[in-house]
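Reply to thread "Modeling small-molecule complexes from scratch"

Following up on the discussion above, here's a worked example others can learn from. I took a protein sequence and the SMILES for NAP and predicted the complex. Inputs first:
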Amino acid sequence: MSEKPISKGKRSVVITGASRGIGRALAHLHAAHGFDVLAVARNFKDFPHHPNITCLPLDLTWSDAIPKIIGCLNATARPFERLINNAGIQVELDLTRDVGDETPALIDREIALNLTLPIHLSHAMVPLMARPGGTIVNVTSLTSRQPKSSAPVYSATKAGLASFTSALRHQLAPLGIRVVEAVPPLVDTDMTLGRGSGKLSAEAMAQAIYDGIAAQRRIIAPGLSRPVLLLNRLLPELVAKILAKS
Ligand SMILES: NC(=O)c1ccc[n+]([C@@H]2O[C@H](COP(=O)([O-])OP(=O)(O)OC[C@H]3O[C@@H](n4cnc5c(N)ncnc54)[C@H](OP(=O)(O)O)[C@@H]3O)[C@@H](O)[C@H]2O)c1
């Protein structure tokens, strides 16, 4: 873990959920391109060291998470060029059965990480971002368009995040801050362990996000995401049937 402060004058990015999976690949890709990276997640135990990456171990569902991130940024360089709201969890939940004492807390936690946090963090980061030139990326999911019945809360949070992304894009356009939605297909990470085949690698997903920002895309949808999004616009009921079987 590096404790080096982010240095003035360099390109900089804050990435949530950066210890594993897509977030970790994004952190290393940005670092390799010379960005100073503030990587946030709970556990960086096996995280490969990179001199451009500052790791901030933090549970993003805790109420002090945003003040801690902003405090860390205030002590370093600004304006910030990028915020990537990537952290997420997916809880399989059957609301007809999961009625244990812990279920409401599980639901609250999933909403807090996947939806509440990116909204509050975006709000808190806007004053610190480059204008023009800043970019906020929100990582959603195809479940934002077609909910997955085994993960109803996850799907709802991703639909909410997609909607927030569209609204924020309009609000921030006059400031020259772009707001981008990244919609991964099935990506080979801990989240999808034991599920599906033909998955995109986390590195390929990270590269698609990096290239999509450079190409000024509003929606970054690599691999199968692009045809699914297109077909969903034309024939949503057909896509629902296909996804229900997958
Ligand atoms: N993989 C896919 O196929 C897929 C498809 C569509 C969308 N997505 C979305 O892509 C994003 C990244 O997913 P992924 O597949 O890379 O997942 P992942 O491998 O499970 O990684 C999730 C990241 O979030 C962090 N995280 C989880 N709970 C946290 C908490 N309470 N506080 C701080 N950090 C926390 C984890 O770090 P710690 O455990 O160290 O905290 C980890 O860095 C998510 O938003 C996911 O919904 C993924």
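What I'd highlight from this example: The domain at 12-245 is CATH 3.40.50.720 (Rossmann fold). DSSP finds seven helices and nine strands in the chain. Questions welcome below.
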